[in-house]
């Protein structure tokens, strides 16, 4: 008897932005007079051919805001579907990571996997939600971030707020002054860089997000 294929559960979690987009789609009819499907049909029938002209056209002829016009224009050319569909997002998330560590950055993938495992080990409520160039780690908010910055280095960012007294290896990014969520980072180039110091400060970042 042939074995039935089973779907493997993704190690990643659904990005909070996907849930926000779903809520936005649900309110589109009430807020703009058309459902998403009605907008896409209208754009295809009445609008310009390409994405950017469609965005500008929606703003000028339908009075839509920049964000709404941009998102509808993007969807109208077959892009951005994963932003409103949890299953599509999780599929895209795997692709984002594969592409992030493709080619000359492939050597960084095992280090990334180790940092991801470490981040998720902080607690059952920790989740990773990949974007195209970074992998944020969430509790209630982003508490850490994995970013392959160069061909040989991953920047492991942490949300430490106004923390000032830190060891030399923990670099202050100036994020607190700029009101960025990520305020500090460790430069990770090998497994030995993922030491007790990194683990301790990651725990501090996680525990702060309550």
Q: What does this entry look like structurally?
A:
- The structure is a single chain.
- This protein is an alpha+beta fold.
- The protein has helices at residues 16-26, 28-32, 36-46, 51-62, 66-76, 86-100, 109-120, 196-208; strands spanning 127-128, 135-138, 142-148, 154-158, 171-172, 184-188.
- Strands 1-2-3-4-6-5 form a six-stranded antiparallel β-sheet, with helices on one face.
- Strand 1 (127-128) and strand 2 form a beta hairpin.
- Helix 3 packs across helix 5 (66-76) and helix 4 packs across helix 5.
- The longest helix is centred in the middle third of the chain and has 15 residues, at 86-100.
- The chain is elongated and about 60 Å long.
- Mean pLDDT is 92; it is low at 1-6.
In quaternary terms, these chains amount to: single chain
Label the overall shape: elongated
Strand content: 5-15%
Please state how the strands of the largest beta sheet are arranged side by side: 1-2-3-4-6-5
Radius of gyration: 21 Å
Helical fraction equals: 40-55%
As residue ranges, the low-confidence spans are 1-6
Major β-sheet profile: 6 strands, antiparallel
- How far apart are the termini? 50 Å
Annotation, overall tally of beta strands: 6
The total count of helices amounts to: 8
């Amino acid at each position: 008897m042939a074995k039935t294929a089973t779907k493997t559960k993704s190690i990643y979690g659904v990005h909070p932005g996907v849930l926000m987009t779903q809520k936005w789609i649900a309110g589109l009819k009430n807020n703009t007079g058309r459902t998403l499907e009605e907008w896409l049909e209208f754009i295809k029938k009445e609008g310009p051919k390409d994405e950017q002209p469609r965005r500008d056209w929606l703003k000028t002829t339908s009075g839509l805001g920049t964000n709404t016009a941009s998102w509808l224009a993007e969807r109208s050319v077959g892009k951005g579907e994963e932003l409103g569909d949890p299953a599509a997002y999780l599929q895209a998330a795997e692709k984002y990571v594969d592409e992030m560590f493709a080619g000359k950055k492939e050597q960084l993938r095992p280090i990334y996997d180790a940092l991801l495992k470490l981040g998720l080990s902080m607690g059952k409520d920790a989740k990773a939600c990949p974007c195209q160039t970074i992998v944020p780690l969430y509790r209630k908010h982003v508490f850490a971030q994995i970013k392959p910055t160069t061909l040989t280095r991953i920047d492991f960012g942490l949300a430490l707020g106004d923390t000032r007294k830190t060891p030399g290896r923990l670099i202050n990014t100036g994020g607190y002054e700029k009101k960025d969520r990520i305020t500090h980072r460790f430069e990770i180039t090998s497994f030995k860089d993922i030491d007790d110091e990194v683990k301790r400060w990651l725990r501090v970042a996680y525990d702060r997000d309550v």
